[in-house]
C-alpha cells in the first residue's frame, strides 16, 4: 500500500513559534534569532500574531501550558538515541481559549444545526462537547425539574422543598440545622436514612463508600490513552474544560461532579463556538447566537442556556504527522509526509537532508500510524543485488521485518530482509491476472514470494513458479500452503533461463499458455532462452505458442521503442506484434514497461538454441 508522499517546504515564521528553541538546530537559531530566548515565543507574543495565523487549529496558535518544558534531546537524532527520549510530547500541548454555549443536552443537535457556520468546526473536534458535570441521573433530574413529582421517601415530611432536603444531606446538618457532621458520621447517617433503594437513586453516594480505584501508572509514564472513541474526554487527543469560578465548599465529591450547588442545571452540552468569538461578549455575538440565547435563555436565573468561556486542550496525539514534523524540522526543509507500507512496516525513502533527523521522523511516523504500523524503516541503498532485496535500516518500533500482506484476496508472508516485495505493483499484478483465463497454464519465471503465481493459481488450471532466491522459494511454498493452493502450483528454485528450458523441454509438464517475466532490470535478456524450445517437436502437431509478458525499464526518449528493440535483439527476430504498455514512472525519466506478445513460431522452432 502506498500512502501518498507530499513534499512541501514549510515556512514557519520563527518569531511566532511557541515551540521551545531546542526544536531547531543550533546554526539555524543563530542565523534567525538574535538570542535563543527569542525563539521561545511567549504566550502573549503568540497571541499578538494570531491575526496573521491561518484559520483553524495550529501548533503556532494557542499556548503551551508548560512552555519551558525541557526537551531532553533537542538536536538531530544520533545513533544511540532511545525512541522515548527523542523529544517531549508535552511540548505539543496547546490550549485554546474559546467561547461556548451551554445548552440542555436534549436540544444540542437541534441547535447545532441552527448555529452551523458559527461553530468551531475544527478537524477531529466535535462541535458538541461533553464536560464533567454535564450529566445527571434521570431520577435526580425529575426531582429538580418537577419537585412536586418527588415521591422519594427520604425527603422529610417537614421539608416540603426537596432542594432544601437535599441541601441538608449535602451539608450534613442535623435536624434543626445543627453543626455539620463529620464526613464519616454524615455518610453513616445517610446510610441509615436511606432504604435499600436509596443508593440506586443516589448512585454517587454508593460510589463514595467504595475505596477509590488507584489508577495504574503506565510504565513509560505516558498519559493514559483510550476512552470514548472519537469524542472529547480526558486522556484523549483533546479535552474541553469550562472556565468557571471555584464554588465554595465543592460538593461534587459527595453527590458527584454533576451537582454543583446553585450552578446545577441538568444535563447539558457545550456547543463550541467559532474561534473568532473567543473574546466576545454576548453583545458582540452574531445575531444567530443572540437569537438562540434570547429565545431559550433569556434572563432566567435557572436557565441552562448560557455563554461560557472554555479551554480546549489539544495534545500531541491530536496533531497530524506533517504538523508535528513541520514544527520540528528546520525551517525551509521539505517535510516527508508519506511512506509506503508493507504489512506492519512503514518504509521511508528519506532524502539526504532528512538523515540527521531520521529517528525523529520515524518516531512521529510510528506514533501517528499506530497500531497498523509497528516498525519504521528507511531504504539505505538502491536495489542492486540479484534477489532484488532492499537494504533497510530499522529506525523505530519493533525490529521484525517479517510481516504479512493481503493482496488480491490472498495472504502473503514476507521477510523484507531476505525477499523482494513491492506493494506498488499490486494494481499491475491485478491487471495481468485479468488477462488470464481458466484454462491457462502459467509459468512465472521470477516469482518471488508468489504475488502473481499464487493469484494466478487461484484462477487458472496450473502454475509453474520459480525463483533463484531460496528464501523467496521458501516463502512461496509457505504462502501456497497458507492460501490452500499447493495443489495447483509447482515450485522451482533455479536460474530463470534453466527453468524455461526445463519446463518447455519436459514431457511431463502441461503446455504453457502464459509466461510472466517480472525482473525489469534484465528480464528481456532472458528471452533468448525461448529460442528453440520446440525444436524437438513437429510444427504440425499444433503446440500452443505461449504468450509472454515481460517487464523492463527504459530511460530512453522513446521508452516503448527502446524496449521493443531490446526484445527483438534478444529473440533475433523482428517481425512480430508486441503490445507495449507503460506501467509506471519509477524515477524521473525512467519508465517501467510491460511488453506482451505471442512467442514467434520461428523462434520457438528455431534449430539454434541459446547457450545456458
Ligand atoms: C522484481 S522481483 C519480482 C518478484 C515477483 N514477481 C513480485 O512481483 O513480487 C524479481 C525476482 O526475480 C528473482 N531473480 C533474480 N534473478 C533471477 C534469476 N536469474 N533467475 C530466477 N529468479 C531470479 C529475484 O530473487 C526476485 O525474487
UniProtKB/TrEMBL annotation:
Q: Which region ranges are annotated with the description Disordered? A: 52-85, 211-230
Catalysis performed (reactions): guanosine(37) in tRNA + S-adenosyl-L-methionine = N(1)-methylguanosine(37) in tRNA + S-adenosyl-L-homocysteine + H(+)
Which residue stretches does the UniProt record annotate as biased composition, category Basic and acidic residues?
A: 217-228
Q: Which CDD domains match?
A: AdoMet_MTases (cd02440)
Domain named SAM-dependent methyltransferase TRM5/TYW2-type: residues: 339-601
Q: Which GO terms describe its biological process?
A: mitochondrial tRNA methylation
Q: Does the keyword Cytoplasm apply?
A: yes
Q: What is its main location?
A: mitochondrion
**GO MF terms, alphabetically ordered:** tRNA (guanine(37)-N1)-methyltransferase activity
One GO cellular component term, please give it.
Answer: nucleus
Q: Which UniProt keywords apply?
A: Cytoplasm, Methyltransferase, Mitochondrion, Nucleus, S-adenosyl-L-methionine, Transferase, tRNA processing
Q: Does the keyword Repressor apply?
A: no
Residues that coordinate or bind S-adenosyl-L-methionine: 429, 467-468, 495-496, 518
User: What EC number is given for this enzyme?
Assistant: 2.1.1.228
UniProt subcellular location: Mitochondrion matrix; Nucleus; Cytoplasm
Comp. bias intervals (Polar residues): 75-85
The similarity annotation says:
Belongs to the class I-like SAM-binding methyltransferase superfamily. TRM5/TYW2 family. Belongs to the TRM5 / TYW2 family.
Task: Briefly state the protein's biological role.
Answer: Specifically methylates the N1 position of guanosine-37 in various cytoplasmic and mitochondrial tRNAs. Methylation is not dependent on the nature of the nucleoside 5' of the target nucleoside. This is the first step in the biosynthesis of wybutosine (yW), a modified base adjacent to the anticodon of tRNAs and required for accurate decoding.
HAMAP family tied to this protein: TRM5
How does this protein assemble? Monomer.
Name of the protein: tRNA (guanine(37)-N1)-methyltransferase
Q: Which organism is it from?
A: Cinchona calisaya
Lineage of origin: Eukaryota, Viridiplantae, Streptophyta, Embryophyta, Tracheophyta
Amino acid at each position: 500500500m502506498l500512502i501518498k508522499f507530499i513534499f512541501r517546504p514549510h515556512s514557519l515564521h520563527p518569531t511566532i513559534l511557541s515551540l521551545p528553541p531546542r526544536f531547531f538546530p543550533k546554526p539555524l537559531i543563530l542565523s534567525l534569532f538574535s538570542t535563543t530566548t527569542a525563539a521561545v515565543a511567549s504566550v502573549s507574543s503568540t497571541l499578538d500574531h494570531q491575526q496573521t495565523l491561518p484559520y483553524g487549529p495550529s501548533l503556532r496558535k494557542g499556548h503551551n501550558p508548560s512552555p519551558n518544558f525541557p526537551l531532553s534531546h533537542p538536536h538531530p537524532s544520533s545513533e544511540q538515541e532511545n525512541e522515548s527520549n527523542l523529544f517531549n510530547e508535552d511540548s505539543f500541548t496547546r490550549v485554546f481559549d474559546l467561547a461556548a454555549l451551554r445548552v440542555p443536552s436534549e436540544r444540542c443537535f437541534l441547535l447545532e444545526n441552527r448555529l452551523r457556520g458559527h461553530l468551531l468546526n475544527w478537524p477531529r473536534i466535535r462541535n458538541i462537547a461533553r464536560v464533567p458535570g454535564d450529566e445527571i441521573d434521570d431520577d435526580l433530574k425529575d426531582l429538580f425539574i418537577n419537585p412536586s413529582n418527588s415521591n422519594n421517601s427520604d425527603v422529610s415530611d417537614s421539608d416540603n422543598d426537596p432542594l432544601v432536603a437535599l441541601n441538608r444531606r449535602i451539608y450534613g446538618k442535623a435536624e434543626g440545622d445543627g453543626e455539620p457532621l463529620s464526613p464519616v458520621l454524615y455518610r453513616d447517617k445517610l446510610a441509615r436514612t436511606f432504604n435499600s433503594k436509596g443508593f440506586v437513586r443516589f448512585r454517587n453516594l454508593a460510589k463514595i463508600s467504595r475505596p477509590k480505584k488507584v489508577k495504574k501508572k503506565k510504565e513509560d509514564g505516558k498519559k493514559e490513552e483510550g476512552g470514548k472513541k472519537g469524542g472529547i474526554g480526558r486522556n484523549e487527543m483533546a479535552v474541553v474544560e469550562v472556565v468557571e469560578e471555584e464554588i465554595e465548599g465543592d460538593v461534587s465529591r459527595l453527590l458527584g461532579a454533576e451537582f454543583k450547588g446553585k450552578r446545577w442545571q441538568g444535563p447539558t452540552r457545550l456547543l463550541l463556538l467559532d474561534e473568532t468569538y473567543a473574546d466576545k461578549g454576548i453583545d458582540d455575538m452574531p445575531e444567530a447566537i443572540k437569537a438562540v440565547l434570547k429565545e431559550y435563555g433569556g434572563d432566567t436565573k435557572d436557565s441552562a442556556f448560557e455563554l461560557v468561556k472554555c479551554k480546549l486542550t489539544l495534545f500531541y496525539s491530536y496533531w497530524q504527522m506533517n504538523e508535528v514534523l513541520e514544527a520540528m524540522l528546520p525551517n525551509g526543509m521539505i517535510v516527508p509526509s508519506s511512506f509506503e507500507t508493507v504489512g506492519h512496516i512503514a518504509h521511508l525513502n528519506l532524502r539526504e537532508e532528512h538523515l540527521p533527523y531520521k529517528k525523529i521522523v520515524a518516531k512521529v511516523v510510528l506514533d501517528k500510524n499506530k497500531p497498523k504500523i509497528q516498525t519504521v524503516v528507511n531504504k539505505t541503498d538502491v536495489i542492486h543485488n540479484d534477489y532484488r532485496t532492499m537494504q533497510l535500516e530499522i529506525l523505530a518500533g519493533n525490529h521484525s521485518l517479517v510481516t504479512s500482506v493481503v493482496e488480491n484476496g490472498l495472504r502473503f508472508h514476507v521477510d523484507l530482509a531476505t525477499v523482494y516485495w513491492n506493494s506498488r505493483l499490486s494494481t499491475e499484478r491485478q491487471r495481468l491476472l485479468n488477462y488470464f483465463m481458466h484454462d491457462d497454464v502459467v509459468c512465472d519465471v521470477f516469482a518471488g514470494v508468489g504475488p502473481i503465481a499464487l493469484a494466478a493459481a487461484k484462477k487458472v488450471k496450473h502454475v509453474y513458479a520459480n525463483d533463484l532466491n531460496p528464501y523467496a522459494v521458501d516463502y512461496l511454498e509457505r504462502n501456497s500452503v497458507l492460501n490452500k493452493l499447493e495443489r495447483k502450483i509447482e515450485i522451482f528454485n533455479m536460474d530463470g533461463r534453466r527453468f524455461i528450458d526445463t519446463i518447455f523441454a519436459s514431457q511431463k509438464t502441461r503446455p504453457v499458455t502464459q509466461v510472466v517475466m517480472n525482473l525489469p532490470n534484465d528480464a528481456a535478456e532472458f528471452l533468448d532462452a525461448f529460442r528453440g524450445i520446440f525444436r524437438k517437436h513437429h510444427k504440425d502437431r499444433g503446440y500452443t505458442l505461449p504468450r509472454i509478458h515481460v517487464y523492463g525499464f527504459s530511460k530512453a526518449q522513446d521508452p516503448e521503442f527502446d524496449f521493443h528493440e531490446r526484445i527483438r535483439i534478444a529473440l533475433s527476430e523482428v517481425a512480430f506484434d508486441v503490445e507495449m504498455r507503460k506501467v509506471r514512472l519509477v524515477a524521473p525519466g525512467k519508465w517501467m514497461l510491460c511488453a506482451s506478445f505471442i512467442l514467434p513460431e520461428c523462434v520457438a522452432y528455431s534449430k539454434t538454441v541459446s547457450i545456458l
